[in-house]
Protein backbone atom coordinates (compact mmCIF):
# COMPACT_ATOMS: atom_id res chain seq x y z
CA UNK A 1 0.00 0.00 0.00
CA UNK A 2 1.37 3.41 -1.01
CA UNK A 3 0.53 6.15 1.53
CA UNK A 4 2.61 9.07 0.26
CA UNK A 5 0.93 12.46 0.16
CA UNK A 6 -1.73 11.82 2.81
CA UNK A 7 -2.67 14.82 4.99
CA UNK A 8 -3.12 13.07 8.32
CA UNK A 9 -3.56 16.33 10.26
CA UNK A 10 -6.69 17.24 8.27
CA UNK A 11 -8.52 13.96 8.85
CA UNK A 12 -11.97 14.44 10.45
CA UNK A 13 -13.06 12.20 13.35
CA UNK A 14 -13.75 8.59 12.35
CA UNK A 15 -17.42 9.01 13.29
CA UNK A 16 -17.93 11.47 10.39
CA UNK A 17 -17.71 8.90 7.53
CA UNK A 18 -18.55 5.81 9.60
CA UNK A 19 -22.12 6.86 10.37
CA UNK A 20 -22.76 7.04 6.61
CA UNK A 21 -20.97 3.77 5.84
CA UNK A 22 -22.72 1.67 8.50
CA UNK A 23 -26.18 2.95 7.52
CA UNK A 24 -25.82 2.27 3.78
CA UNK A 25 -26.38 -1.54 3.87
CA UNK A 26 -29.56 -1.02 5.94
CA UNK A 27 -31.10 0.80 2.98
CA UNK A 28 -30.05 -2.12 0.78
CA UNK A 29 -31.88 -4.50 3.12
CA UNK A 30 -35.07 -2.39 2.96
CA UNK A 31 -34.83 -2.27 -0.85
CA UNK A 32 -34.42 -6.06 -0.95
CA UNK A 33 -37.59 -6.60 1.09
CA UNK A 34 -39.61 -4.27 -1.16
CA UNK A 35 -38.33 -6.16 -4.22
CA UNK A 36 -39.26 -9.46 -2.56
CA UNK A 37 -42.88 -8.36 -1.99
CA UNK A 38 -43.36 -6.64 -5.37
CA UNK A 39 -44.53 -8.27 -8.58
CA UNK A 40 -41.88 -8.45 -11.30
CA UNK A 41 -44.19 -6.88 -13.91
CA UNK A 42 -44.44 -3.71 -11.77
CA UNK A 43 -40.65 -3.47 -11.45
CA UNK A 44 -40.24 -3.64 -15.23
CA UNK A 45 -41.80 -0.16 -15.41
CA UNK A 46 -39.14 2.40 -14.47
CA UNK A 47 -41.83 4.97 -13.59
CA UNK A 48 -43.84 2.78 -11.21
CA UNK A 49 -43.83 4.02 -7.60
CA UNK A 50 -42.21 0.78 -6.43
CA UNK A 51 -39.38 1.10 -8.97
CA UNK A 52 -38.79 4.73 -7.99
CA UNK A 53 -38.70 3.86 -4.29
CA UNK A 54 -36.31 0.91 -4.76
CA UNK A 55 -34.08 2.96 -7.07
CA UNK A 56 -33.75 5.77 -4.55
CA UNK A 57 -33.23 3.47 -1.60
CA UNK A 58 -30.19 2.16 -3.45
CA UNK A 59 -29.01 5.45 -4.99
CA UNK A 60 -29.64 7.85 -2.10
CA UNK A 61 -29.56 5.42 0.80
CA UNK A 62 -26.80 3.07 -0.29
CA UNK A 63 -24.67 4.75 -2.96
CA UNK A 64 -25.28 8.32 -1.78
CA UNK A 65 -24.38 7.60 1.83
CA UNK A 66 -21.18 5.78 0.86
CA UNK A 67 -20.14 8.53 -1.56
CA UNK A 68 -20.83 11.32 0.91
CA UNK A 69 -18.98 9.46 3.66
CA UNK A 70 -16.05 8.91 1.30
CA UNK A 71 -15.91 12.55 0.22
CA UNK A 72 -15.91 13.87 3.79
CA UNK A 73 -12.93 11.61 4.59
CA UNK A 74 -10.95 11.45 1.35
CA UNK A 75 -10.90 15.14 0.52
CA UNK A 76 -9.20 16.14 3.80
CA UNK A 77 -6.81 13.14 3.76
CA UNK A 78 -5.93 12.98 0.06
CA UNK A 79 -6.06 16.70 -0.72
CA UNK A 80 -5.78 18.53 2.61
CA UNK A 81 -9.24 20.09 2.19
CA UNK A 82 -10.61 21.90 5.25
CA UNK A 83 -14.29 21.01 5.39
CA UNK A 84 -15.99 23.44 7.82
CA UNK A 85 -17.36 21.89 11.04
CA UNK A 86 -17.31 18.33 9.66
CA UNK A 87 -18.69 16.75 12.84
CA UNK A 88 -21.77 18.93 13.27
CA UNK A 89 -22.52 19.36 9.57
CA UNK A 90 -22.22 15.64 8.80
CA UNK A 91 -24.43 14.74 11.77
CA UNK A 92 -27.09 17.30 10.80
CA UNK A 93 -27.01 16.27 7.15
CA UNK A 94 -27.06 12.59 8.08
CA UNK A 95 -30.17 13.05 10.25
CA UNK A 96 -31.97 15.07 7.57
CA UNK A 97 -31.15 12.49 4.89
CA UNK A 98 -32.34 9.61 7.08
CA UNK A 99 -35.64 11.35 7.82
CA UNK A 100 -36.02 12.47 4.19
CA UNK A 101 -35.25 9.06 2.69
CA UNK A 102 -37.62 7.11 4.95
CA UNK A 103 -40.34 9.74 4.51
CA UNK A 104 -39.99 9.47 0.73
CA UNK A 105 -40.28 5.67 0.85
CA UNK A 106 -43.42 5.60 2.98
CA UNK A 107 -44.82 8.79 1.46
CA UNK A 108 -44.68 7.54 -2.13
CA UNK A 109 -45.77 3.98 -1.33
CA UNK A 110 -48.78 5.22 0.68
CA UNK A 111 -49.50 8.33 -1.40
CA UNK A 112 -49.10 10.45 1.73
CA UNK A 113 -48.56 14.13 0.92
CA UNK A 114 -47.39 14.99 4.45
CA UNK A 115 -44.58 12.43 4.38
CA UNK A 116 -43.66 13.46 0.83
CA UNK A 117 -43.38 17.08 1.99
CA UNK A 118 -41.11 16.00 4.86
CA UNK A 119 -39.03 14.06 2.31
CA UNK A 120 -38.80 17.15 0.09
CA UNK A 121 -37.52 19.28 2.97
CA UNK A 122 -35.28 16.62 4.52
CA UNK A 123 -33.57 15.40 1.36
CA UNK A 124 -33.24 18.87 -0.15
CA UNK A 125 -31.74 20.52 2.93
CA UNK A 126 -29.65 17.46 3.87
CA UNK A 127 -27.99 17.17 0.48
CA UNK A 128 -27.51 20.89 -0.07
CA UNK A 129 -25.96 21.30 3.40
CA UNK A 130 -23.31 18.62 3.05
CA UNK A 131 -22.60 19.29 -0.64
CA UNK A 132 -22.09 22.99 0.11
CA UNK A 133 -19.68 22.18 2.94
CA UNK A 134 -17.77 19.80 0.64
CA UNK A 135 -17.49 22.50 -2.03
CA UNK A 136 -16.24 24.99 0.57
CA UNK A 137 -13.66 22.40 1.59
CA UNK A 138 -12.57 21.94 -2.02
CA UNK A 139 -11.99 25.70 -2.31
CA UNK A 140 -9.34 25.43 0.43
CA UNK A 141 -7.29 22.84 -1.48
CA UNK A 142 -3.91 24.30 -2.47
CA UNK A 143 -2.86 21.71 -5.04
CA UNK A 144 -5.62 20.56 -7.40
CA UNK A 145 -4.67 17.15 -8.73
CA UNK A 146 -6.79 15.05 -11.11
CA UNK A 147 -8.67 13.36 -8.28
CA UNK A 148 -9.68 16.63 -6.60
CA UNK A 149 -10.76 18.16 -9.93
CA UNK A 150 -12.87 15.09 -10.68
CA UNK A 151 -14.43 15.22 -7.20
CA UNK A 152 -15.30 18.89 -7.67
CA UNK A 153 -16.98 18.20 -11.02
CA UNK A 154 -18.89 15.22 -9.62
CA UNK A 155 -20.16 17.37 -6.72
CA UNK A 156 -21.28 19.94 -9.30
CA UNK A 157 -23.36 17.24 -11.01
CA UNK A 158 -24.64 16.20 -7.58
CA UNK A 159 -26.03 19.70 -6.99
CA UNK A 160 -27.84 19.51 -10.33
CA UNK A 161 -29.42 16.12 -9.71
CA UNK A 162 -30.53 17.19 -6.21
CA UNK A 163 -32.34 20.21 -7.67
CA UNK A 164 -33.95 18.00 -10.34
CA UNK A 165 -34.92 15.46 -7.71
CA UNK A 166 -36.58 18.16 -5.60
CA UNK A 167 -38.52 19.34 -8.66
CA UNK A 168 -39.82 15.83 -9.31
CA UNK A 169 -40.64 15.23 -5.65
CA UNK A 170 -42.58 18.50 -5.65
CA UNK A 171 -44.60 17.09 -8.56
CA UNK A 172 -45.67 14.18 -6.38
CA UNK A 173 -46.47 16.57 -3.51
CA UNK A 174 -48.70 18.78 -5.68
CA UNK A 175 -50.08 15.89 -7.76
CA UNK A 176 -48.91 17.75 -10.87
CA UNK A 177 -46.90 15.40 -13.09
CA UNK A 178 -46.31 17.24 -16.37
CA UNK A 179 -44.55 16.05 -19.54
CA UNK A 180 -41.44 17.94 -18.39
CA UNK A 181 -41.34 15.62 -15.36
CA UNK A 182 -40.34 12.63 -17.50
CA UNK A 183 -37.73 14.59 -19.46
CA UNK A 184 -36.14 15.78 -16.22
CA UNK A 185 -36.38 12.25 -14.78
CA UNK A 186 -34.32 10.97 -17.72
CA UNK A 187 -31.71 13.71 -17.30
CA UNK A 188 -31.69 13.15 -13.53
CA UNK A 189 -30.92 9.43 -13.88
CA UNK A 190 -28.24 9.78 -16.58
CA UNK A 191 -26.44 12.60 -14.76
CA UNK A 192 -26.65 10.70 -11.47
CA UNK A 193 -25.12 7.54 -12.96
CA UNK A 194 -22.52 9.02 -15.30
CA UNK A 195 -22.05 12.55 -13.95
CA UNK A 196 -22.00 12.12 -10.19
CA UNK A 197 -21.24 8.43 -9.57
CA UNK A 198 -19.30 7.70 -12.77
CA UNK A 199 -17.00 10.71 -12.64
CA UNK A 200 -16.47 10.29 -8.89
CA UNK A 201 -15.45 6.63 -9.31
CA UNK A 202 -13.11 7.44 -12.20
CA UNK A 203 -11.42 10.35 -10.40
CA UNK A 204 -11.05 8.41 -7.13
CA UNK A 205 -9.60 5.42 -9.00
CA UNK A 206 -6.68 7.62 -10.10
CA UNK A 207 -5.59 7.67 -6.45
CA UNK A 208 -7.08 4.47 -5.04
CA UNK A 209 -5.83 1.85 -7.51
CA UNK A 210 -2.13 2.76 -7.13
CA UNK A 211 -2.50 3.30 -3.36
CA UNK A 212 -4.49 0.22 -2.31
CA UNK A 213 -3.58 -2.23 -5.08
CA UNK A 214 -0.11 -1.04 -6.16
CA UNK A 215 -1.46 -0.89 -9.72
CA UNK A 216 0.30 1.14 -12.44
CA UNK A 217 -0.53 4.85 -12.37
CA UNK A 218 -2.93 6.26 -14.93
CA UNK A 219 -1.46 8.06 -17.91
CA UNK A 220 -1.53 11.89 -17.94
CA UNK A 221 -4.20 11.93 -20.68
CA UNK A 222 -6.55 9.82 -18.55
CA UNK A 223 -5.99 11.93 -15.45
CA UNK A 224 -6.10 15.34 -17.13
CA UNK A 225 -8.61 14.94 -19.96
CA UNK A 226 -11.09 12.07 -19.53
CA UNK A 227 -13.25 13.66 -16.80
CA UNK A 228 -13.61 16.84 -18.87
CA UNK A 229 -14.43 14.85 -21.99
CA UNK A 230 -17.14 12.90 -20.15
CA UNK A 231 -18.55 16.13 -18.69
CA UNK A 232 -18.67 17.65 -22.17
CA UNK A 233 -20.46 14.54 -23.43
CA UNK A 234 -23.06 14.85 -20.69
CA UNK A 235 -23.68 18.51 -21.53
CA UNK A 236 -24.03 17.64 -25.22
CA UNK A 237 -26.41 14.83 -24.36
CA UNK A 238 -28.48 17.28 -22.32
CA UNK A 239 -28.59 19.80 -25.18
CA UNK A 240 -29.55 17.20 -27.79
CA UNK A 241 -32.04 15.52 -25.49
CA UNK A 242 -33.95 18.81 -25.01
CA UNK A 243 -33.66 20.41 -28.44
CA UNK A 244 -32.59 17.77 -31.00
CA UNK A 245 -33.63 14.42 -29.64
CA UNK A 246 -32.71 12.61 -32.86
CA UNK A 247 -29.02 13.45 -32.27
CA UNK A 248 -28.88 12.45 -28.61
CA UNK A 249 -27.68 9.04 -29.73
CA UNK A 250 -24.35 10.59 -30.82
CA UNK A 251 -23.68 11.92 -27.32
CA UNK A 252 -24.57 8.50 -25.88
CA UNK A 253 -21.90 6.92 -28.10
CA UNK A 254 -19.43 9.58 -26.92
CA UNK A 255 -20.11 8.72 -23.26
CA UNK A 256 -20.18 4.99 -23.91
CA UNK A 257 -16.76 4.96 -25.57
CA UNK A 258 -15.02 6.58 -22.61
CA UNK A 259 -16.73 4.44 -20.00
CA UNK A 260 -15.89 1.32 -22.02
CA UNK A 261 -12.30 2.58 -22.17
CA UNK A 262 -12.31 3.07 -18.38
CA UNK A 263 -13.64 -0.46 -17.79
CA UNK A 264 -10.95 -1.89 -20.04
CA UNK A 265 -8.24 0.21 -18.37
CA UNK A 266 -9.24 -0.98 -14.89
CA UNK A 267 -9.07 -4.62 -16.02
CA UNK A 268 -5.63 -4.11 -17.57
CA UNK A 269 -4.26 -2.30 -14.50
CA UNK A 270 -5.32 -5.12 -12.20
CA UNK A 271 -3.46 -7.53 -14.50
CA UNK A 272 -0.31 -5.38 -14.22
CA UNK A 273 -0.21 -4.97 -10.43
CA UNK A 274 3.21 -5.18 -8.80
CA UNK A 275 1.83 -7.54 -6.15
CA UNK A 276 -0.97 -9.48 -7.87
CA UNK A 277 -2.56 -10.83 -4.68
CA UNK A 278 -6.26 -11.45 -5.20
CA UNK A 279 -8.96 -10.72 -2.65
CA UNK A 280 -12.68 -10.03 -2.69
CA UNK A 281 -12.17 -6.32 -3.42
CA UNK A 282 -10.30 -7.25 -6.60
CA UNK A 283 -13.22 -9.49 -7.55
CA UNK A 284 -15.57 -6.55 -7.06
CA UNK A 285 -13.50 -4.27 -9.28
CA UNK A 286 -13.20 -6.91 -11.99
CA UNK A 287 -16.92 -7.76 -11.94
CA UNK A 288 -17.70 -4.02 -11.96
CA UNK A 289 -15.67 -3.65 -15.16
CA UNK A 290 -17.59 -6.47 -16.85
CA UNK A 291 -20.98 -5.16 -15.72
CA UNK A 292 -20.06 -1.66 -16.94
CA UNK A 293 -19.14 -2.97 -20.38
CA UNK A 294 -22.39 -4.94 -20.68
CA UNK A 295 -24.50 -2.10 -19.29
CA UNK A 296 -23.06 0.59 -21.54
CA UNK A 297 -23.44 -1.63 -24.62
CA UNK A 298 -27.09 -2.32 -23.74
CA UNK A 299 -27.67 1.38 -23.02
CA UNK A 300 -26.69 2.20 -26.61
CA UNK A 301 -28.56 -0.65 -28.27
CA UNK A 302 -31.66 -0.02 -26.11
CA UNK A 303 -32.46 2.85 -28.51
CA UNK A 304 -33.47 0.22 -31.06
CA UNK A 305 -35.75 -1.54 -28.56
CA UNK A 306 -37.63 1.65 -27.62
CA UNK A 307 -36.10 1.62 -24.12
CA UNK A 308 -37.62 -1.75 -23.35
CA UNK A 309 -34.49 -2.82 -21.45
CA UNK A 310 -33.74 0.42 -19.60
CA UNK A 311 -34.40 -1.24 -16.22
CA UNK A 312 -31.86 -3.94 -17.12
CA UNK A 313 -29.39 -1.17 -17.99
CA UNK A 314 -29.95 0.25 -14.50
CA UNK A 315 -29.27 -3.18 -12.96
CA UNK A 316 -26.06 -3.66 -14.95
CA UNK A 317 -24.60 -0.17 -14.50
CA UNK A 318 -26.18 0.95 -11.23
CA UNK A 319 -26.03 -2.42 -9.50
CA UNK A 320 -23.28 -4.29 -11.28
CA UNK A 321 -20.86 -1.41 -11.74
CA UNK A 322 -21.51 1.29 -9.13
CA UNK A 323 -22.69 -0.93 -6.25
CA UNK A 324 -19.83 -3.36 -6.86
CA UNK A 325 -17.23 -0.60 -6.68
CA UNK A 326 -18.84 0.90 -3.58
CA UNK A 327 -18.93 -2.42 -1.71
CA UNK A 328 -15.40 -3.28 -2.77
CA UNK A 329 -14.18 0.09 -1.55
CA UNK A 330 -15.99 -0.29 1.80
CA UNK A 331 -13.93 -3.43 2.40
CA UNK A 332 -10.79 -1.37 1.79
CA UNK A 333 -11.66 2.04 3.21
CA UNK A 334 -13.14 1.07 6.59
CA UNK A 335 -10.23 -1.16 7.75
CA UNK A 336 -7.80 1.48 6.43
CA UNK A 337 -9.55 4.25 8.38
CA UNK A 338 -9.54 2.17 11.56
CA UNK A 339 -5.81 1.47 11.16
CA UNK A 340 -5.14 5.08 10.15
CA UNK A 341 -6.89 6.66 13.17
CA UNK A 342 -5.56 4.16 15.72
CA UNK A 343 -2.04 4.56 14.39
CA UNK A 344 -2.36 8.36 14.63
CA UNK A 345 -3.34 7.98 18.30
CA UNK A 346 -0.23 5.93 19.11
CA UNK A 347 -1.53 2.35 18.83
CA UNK A 348 1.02 0.11 17.15
CA UNK A 349 -0.30 -3.41 17.75
CA UNK A 350 -3.04 -3.20 15.14
CA UNK A 351 -4.11 -5.95 12.73
CA UNK A 352 -3.45 -5.23 9.06
CA UNK A 353 -6.32 -3.94 6.95
CA UNK A 354 -6.62 -7.39 5.38
CA UNK A 355 -6.99 -9.10 8.76
CA UNK A 356 -9.81 -6.89 10.08
CA UNK A 357 -12.56 -8.45 7.93
CA UNK A 358 -13.49 -12.14 7.77
CA UNK A 359 -12.26 -13.35 4.36
CA UNK A 360 -14.68 -16.27 4.10
CA UNK A 361 -17.70 -14.14 4.95
CA UNK A 362 -16.67 -11.43 2.50
CA UNK A 363 -16.38 -14.04 -0.27
CA UNK A 364 -19.81 -15.46 0.60
CA UNK A 365 -21.22 -11.93 0.56
CA UNK A 366 -19.70 -11.29 -2.87
CA UNK A 367 -21.11 -14.52 -4.33
CA UNK A 368 -24.59 -13.84 -2.95
CA UNK A 369 -24.49 -10.30 -4.31
CA UNK A 370 -23.33 -11.50 -7.73
CA UNK A 371 -25.97 -14.25 -7.90
CA UNK A 372 -28.69 -11.77 -6.89
CA UNK A 373 -27.76 -9.37 -9.71
CA UNK A 374 -27.73 -12.15 -12.29
CA UNK A 375 -31.05 -13.37 -10.91
CA UNK A 376 -32.59 -9.90 -11.24
CA UNK A 377 -31.56 -9.86 -14.90
CA UNK A 378 -33.10 -13.29 -15.54
CA UNK A 379 -36.28 -12.06 -13.82
CA UNK A 380 -36.99 -10.13 -17.02
CA UNK A 381 -37.77 -13.46 -18.67
CA UNK A 382 -38.59 -15.76 -15.74
CA UNK A 383 -40.44 -14.02 -12.91
CA UNK A 384 -39.81 -16.93 -10.53
CA UNK A 385 -36.18 -15.76 -10.27
CA UNK A 386 -37.19 -12.50 -8.57
CA UNK A 387 -37.96 -13.64 -5.01
CA UNK A 388 -34.88 -15.90 -4.58
CA UNK A 389 -32.70 -13.12 -6.01
CA UNK A 390 -34.20 -10.59 -3.60
CA UNK A 391 -33.56 -13.01 -0.73
CA UNK A 392 -29.92 -13.48 -1.79
CA UNK A 393 -29.56 -9.69 -2.02
CA UNK A 394 -30.97 -9.19 1.49
CA UNK A 395 -28.62 -11.80 2.98
CA UNK A 396 -25.64 -10.26 1.17
CA UNK A 397 -26.49 -6.84 2.63
CA UNK A 398 -26.83 -8.30 6.14
CA UNK A 399 -23.41 -9.96 5.82
CA UNK A 400 -21.96 -6.70 4.45
CA UNK A 401 -23.30 -4.83 7.48
CA UNK A 402 -21.70 -7.38 9.81
CA UNK A 403 -18.39 -7.28 7.91
CA UNK A 404 -18.03 -3.51 8.09
CA UNK A 405 -19.06 -3.36 11.76
CA UNK A 406 -16.26 -5.82 12.66
CA UNK A 407 -13.33 -3.36 12.26
CA UNK A 408 -15.36 -0.56 13.85
CA UNK A 409 -16.02 -2.75 16.89
CA UNK A 410 -12.30 -3.48 17.07
CA UNK A 411 -11.64 0.29 16.99
CA UNK A 412 -14.07 0.90 19.86
CA UNK A 413 -12.54 -1.87 21.98
CA UNK A 414 -8.96 -0.85 21.18
CA UNK A 415 -9.58 2.75 22.25
CA UNK A 416 -10.41 1.48 25.74
CA UNK A 417 -6.80 0.34 26.14
CA UNK A 418 -3.69 2.44 26.62
CA UNK A 419 -1.80 3.47 23.43
CA UNK A 420 1.69 2.08 22.82
CA UNK A 421 3.00 5.62 22.45
CA UNK A 422 1.89 8.94 23.88
CA UNK A 423 1.15 11.05 20.82
CA UNK A 424 0.06 14.17 22.74
CA UNK A 425 3.61 15.57 22.63
CA UNK A 426 3.35 15.86 18.83
CA UNK A 427 0.14 17.88 18.87
Describe this structure in words.
Helix 3 (49-79) packs parallel to helix 11 (310-344) and helix 8 (220-243) packs antiparallel against helix 9. The protein starts with 14 loop residues before the first helix and ends in a 13-residue tail after the last helix. It has 13 helices and no strands. With 427 residues, the protein is mainly alpha-helical.
Which segments are poorly predicted (pLDDT under 50) over 5 or more consecutive residues? none
Report the order of strands and helices.
Answer: HHHHHHHHHHHHH
Strand content: under 5%
Q: What is the first-to-last residue Cα distance?
A: 26 Å
Kindly state the percentage of residues in helix.
Answer: over 70%
How many β-strand stretches?
0
Structural class: mainly alpha
Specify the overall morphology: globular
Count of alpha/pi helices: 13
- Rg from Cα: 21 Å
Mean pLDDT level: 89
Main beta-sheet annotation? none
Secondary structure elements and their pairing?
Elements: H1 15-36, H2 40-43, H3 49-79, H4 86-109, H5 113-139, H6 146-174, H7 179-213, H8 220-243, H9 248-271, H10 280-301, H11 310-344, H12 359-378, H13 386-414
Helix pairs in contact: 1-3, 1-4, 1-13, 3-4, 3-5, 3-11, 4-5, 5-6, 6-7, 6-8, 7-8, 7-9, 7-11, 8-9, 9-10, 10-11, 11-12, 11-13, 12-13
Amino acid sequence: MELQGLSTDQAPPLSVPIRFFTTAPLFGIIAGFIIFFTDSSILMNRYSVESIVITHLLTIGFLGFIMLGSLTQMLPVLAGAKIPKPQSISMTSYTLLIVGSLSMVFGLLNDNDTLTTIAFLGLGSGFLLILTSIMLGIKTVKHFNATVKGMAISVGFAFSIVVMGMYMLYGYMSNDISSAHFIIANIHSVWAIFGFAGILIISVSFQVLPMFYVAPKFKPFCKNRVVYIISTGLMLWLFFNIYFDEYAFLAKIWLALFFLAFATTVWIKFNKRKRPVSDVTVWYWRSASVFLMLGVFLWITDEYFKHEYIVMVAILIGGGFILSVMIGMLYKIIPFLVWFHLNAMGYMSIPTTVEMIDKKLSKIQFLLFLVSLIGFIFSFYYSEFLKPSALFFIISMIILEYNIIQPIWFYIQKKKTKPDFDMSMFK
